[in-house]
Amino acid sequence: MSASTRSGTWAATRLSTIARVIRRRVKPQDHPELPFVGMDNVEAHTMRLLGTVPSSTMKSASVHFRPGDVLYGRLRPYLNKVYVPDFEGLASAEFIPLTTPGGVVPEFLQYRINAADFVAYASQLDEGDRPRVDYDQIAAFEVELPPSGEQRRIVEAIESYSTRLDDAVATLERVQRNLKRYRASVLKAAVEGRLVPTEAELARAEGRDYEPAPVLLERILAERRRRWEEAELAKMKAKGKPPKDDKWKAKYPEPEAVHISALPVLPEGWVWTSVDAVGDVLLGRQRAPQFLTGRYSRPYLRVANIKDDRIDYSDLEEMDFDAAHFEKYRLKPGDILVSEGQSPERLGQSAIYSGGIDGLCFQKTLHRFRPISFGPSSEFAQLVFRAHVKSGVFKKLGSITTNIAHLTLIKFKSAPFPLPPLGEQKRITNETERLLSIVYELKSSNIAHIVRCARLRQSLLKWAFAGRLVDQDPTDEPASRLLERIEAERESTNGDPRRSRRRPRARSSKA
Fold first, then answer.
1. Region 326-346: what's the mean pLDDT?
2. pLDDT digits (tens, 9 = 90+) for 402-459
3. Which CA distances in Å does 398 have to 34, 270, 306, 361, 401?
4. Are 11-147+476-499 and 213-420 the same fold in CATH?
5. By percentage, how much of the chain surpasses pLDDT 70?
6. Residue 467 Ramachandran class (φ > 0 left, ψ -120 to 50 alpha, else beta)
7. In angstroms, rounded to a whole number, what is the distance separating the alpha carbons of residues 81 and 40?
8. What is the pLDDT of residue 499?
9. Of 12, 108, 138, 292, which residue is most buried, by most CB within 10 angstroms?
10. Which CATH superfamily, name and number, covers 213-420?
11. Nearest of 66, 4, 35, 64 to residue 465 by alpha carbon
């Protein structure tokens, strides 16, 4: 890159001098043949066009633009949406179509208002949930204008460097997608018995016995029934109605069955069962108005707090839990919280509660899974739930519309659960943790490189507009003369920019 700085050929001016608004608003139905560019069609920060839609599908008033106009997104200016089309069309009224006079290269203006200092300038002009700026507000922005020839050289240099940055970012994003697929494959292999040697294989090689999962499951189910009978008997005695015989035991709710015909074959020593069979599952407490205040206000978790394998404690809410409800909904270390849904992307997301916040409870939008004694470890059960999200098992069980998703309690209980021997569970969780930690480190490093590319892109623009990106030619006509011509042309048209005869040059599309 050139080490030059701005010479006397540059001139100070304002955006209002080199960019005017001369296009009128029109009705889309009057121009059904033209393409339409909406705010969503321009990618934030990158100046990349993602596509267009027919103007005939639009109803609201739009702005008309021509090739070479600079479309500037005035809604939420921090999104930095700027695009120079090489075609005629209509755009959302949230775009300001800027037209440059002769001698000002449209792409130079595009990059100039894409730079960080202009974004910061525009962003502070209006605040709120939907900040929006007008032309009159941004028109006062001060610009150092180089000669026309240097403008073109700056644009060519920026585009050359940007192409290389785009290629680098595309490669990094491809790596991100591959890491995501690899993480899903690790989880899938973990819960299908393909990640570590099975307990059956090791037992044969070492000449020893082991407890296969079907036998383990029998112990789990026996413990499940024992706990239910103990709880029911305590309830009856508390009411002063102890049982006279064992007929009450027939009311025992058998665990939800799982249909294994469509499930993959598990390794030797494993067995398919259901979530309900291996854990105590409970839906959280309803957030009713009468519980929002009271004597026993306690913090609780909701869907927004549960991320993929972690709990966000930064935004806890409180609700009243009296002694009985506190005993029922209080979390214990090792409990797993599984999102009931609300939005499709959150359905089935889960995390292990490891303690740390005394008296923490949970809301009805979450299922609590508590492993039954000597059943699956919390760590292995969490792998199963994460794998069910990645493979779409929970999605198939849930009810999903465009914006709402639900994984009901009965559906969650009936979800298939692959159960391996206890010793194998530990080896699986250790190896999965090792592999996913490597994935996490690579992902973090990759994200850091993507952020560096974004910073380098802005540094590139900063160097360009400081006169340090390209060599300056002393034979270039000074920008001051260009500004004189622009002013003379403006006076000759009595300040009406629509009378200008400048015809913007077409360029190749960068979409």
1. 93
2. 788 899 999 999 999 999 999 999 999 999 999 999 999 999 999 999 999 999 999 9
3. 42, 26, 18, 24, 10
4. yes
5. 95
6. left
7. 9
8. 53
9. 108
10. DNA methylase specificity domains (3.90.220.20)
11. 4
Task: Tell me how far CA of residue 421 lies from CA of 199, 269, 418, 434, in angstroms.
Answer: 7, 7, 10, 20
Query: Confidence class of residue 495 from pLDDT cuts 50, 70 and 90?
Result: low
Q: Which superfamily is assigned to 11-147+476-499 in CATH?
A: DNA methylase specificity domains (3.90.220.20)
pTM: 0.78
Amino acid occupying residue 288? A
Instruction: Give the separation between CA 112 and CA 121, rounded to whole angstroms.
Output: 12
Least Cα distance to 13 among 142, 187, 151, 100 occurs for 142
At residue 496 the predicted structure's pLDDT band, cuts being 50, 70 and 90, is low
Residue 110's contacts (CB-CB under 8 Å, 6 or more residues apart) are 47, 70, 82, 83, 84
What are the boundaries of each domain within the chain?
11-147+476-499, 155-210+426-472, 213-420
Beta strand segments in 315-451, E: 317-320, 336-339, 341-342, 350-352, 361-362, 366-371, 399-400, 405-406, 416-419
Backbone angles phi, psi at 218, to 5 degrees: -60, -40
Angle at 403 between CA 400 and CA 405, to 5 degrees: 35
Pairs from 312-319 (Cβ < 8 Å, separation ≥ 24) = 313/356, 313/357, 316/357, 316/360, 319/285, 319/287, 319/291, 319/292, 319/361, 319/363
Report which DSSP code applies to 476.
S
φ/ψ bin of 391: left (φ > 0), alpha (ψ from -120 to 50), beta (otherwise): alpha
How many residues belong to the chain? 511
Task: Encode 382-404: b = buried (16+ Cβ within 10 Å), e = exposed.
Answer: bbbbbbbbbeebbbebbeeeeee
Whether residue 88 is predicted with pLDDT greater than 90 in this model: the reply is: yes
Q: What angle do CA 50, 54, 56 make, to 5 degrees?
A: 150
Question: 370 and 335 in contact (C-beta within 8 Å)?
Answer: yes
Q: Is the model's pLDDT at 1 over the cut of 60?
A: no
For 230-289, the pLDDT digits (tens) are: 999 999 999 999 999 999 999 999 998 888 888 999 999 999 999 999 999 999 998 887
pLDDT single digits (tens) 10-57:
999 999 999 999 998 999 999 999 999 999 999 999 999 999 999 999
Residue 79's nearest CA partner among 36, 37, 155, 131 is 131
Counting Cβ atoms within 10 Å, is residue 181 exposed (0-12), middle (13-18) or buried (19+)?
A: exposed
- Cβ contact 103:486 at 8 Å: yes
